[in-house]
Design the sequence.
């Protein structure tokens, strides 16, 4: 079953560095959303990509940016990492925004 | 702005017993979706059950059912015949009905469910 695949599963970065997280959507899905889940909290919406464009954005600074490729896969980039960016980053794919399937996330630790 | 509140950080239930997880939400919309998601240690968010606000009938999926009280903006999850595999973090989530630019999920803070053998 080609579910949502995220890479890497874990990574450790130093404050001030930049990081790129990747997501391959479920087969047949064309929309990718990214969520940040801090420890002990519910996921918070970062942004959503459809047709290679950012369609909706949550309350996150411009340090958070993304991209969607023609094959619908997506990247989340975070610049100038802060300690507070340490979290689980979840990718969710859907078909035109309905019926989400989540990946297992990338655990980012900023030291 | 829409908000989702889960007031029970942790719950515990004996195997084979029934447990109810609570969720309240706030919205000015009349049509929307409500969800319960399960997040086991594998971290993947798994859809448990979905309710459309315009449907008066409460959703049911096998051992999982909801009590949807639209006027009270309450959406509780009942798990019957609890199993060890039900142990996980459970999140209540809200989404506006119409797609396009408004289909983000808004999550509560979660309830950690423990199942005792």
Sequence:
């Amino acid at each position: 079953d080609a579910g949502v695949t995220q890479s890497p599963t874990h990574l450790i970065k130093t404050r001030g560095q930049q990081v790129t997280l990747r997501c391959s959507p479920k087969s047949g899905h064309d929309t990718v959303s990214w969520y940040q889940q801090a420890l002990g909290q519910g996921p918070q919406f970062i942004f959503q990509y459809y047709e290679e464009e950012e369609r909706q954005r949550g309350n996150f600074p411009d340090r958070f940016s993304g991209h969607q490729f023609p094959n619908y896969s997506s990247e989340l980039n975070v610049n100038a990492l802060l300690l507070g960016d340490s979290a689980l980053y979840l990718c969710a794919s859907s078909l035109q925004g309905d019926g989400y399937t989540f990946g297992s996330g990338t655990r980012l630790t900023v030291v | 702005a829409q908000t989702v509140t889960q007031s029970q950080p942790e719950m515990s239930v004996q195997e084979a017993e029934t447990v109810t997880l609570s969720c309240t939400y706030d919205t000015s919309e009349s049509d929307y979706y409500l969800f319960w998601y399960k997040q086991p240690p594998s971290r993947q968010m798994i859809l448990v059950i979905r309710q459309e606000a315009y449907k008066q009938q409460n959703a049911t999926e096998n051992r999982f059912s909801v009590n949807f009280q639209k006027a009270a903006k309450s959406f509780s999850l009942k798990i019957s015949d609890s199993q060890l595999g039900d142990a996980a973090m459970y999140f209540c989530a809200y989404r506006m009905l119409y797609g396009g630019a408004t289909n983000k999920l808004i999550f509560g803070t979660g309830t950690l469910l423990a199942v005792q053998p």
User: Anything to note?
Assistant: The mean pLDDT of chain A is 94. The interface with chain B takes residues 33, 35, 40-45, 48, 55-56, 58, 88, 90, 92, 94, 96-98, 100, 102-105, 107 of chain A (CB under 8 Å). Chain A is about 0% helix and 55% strand.
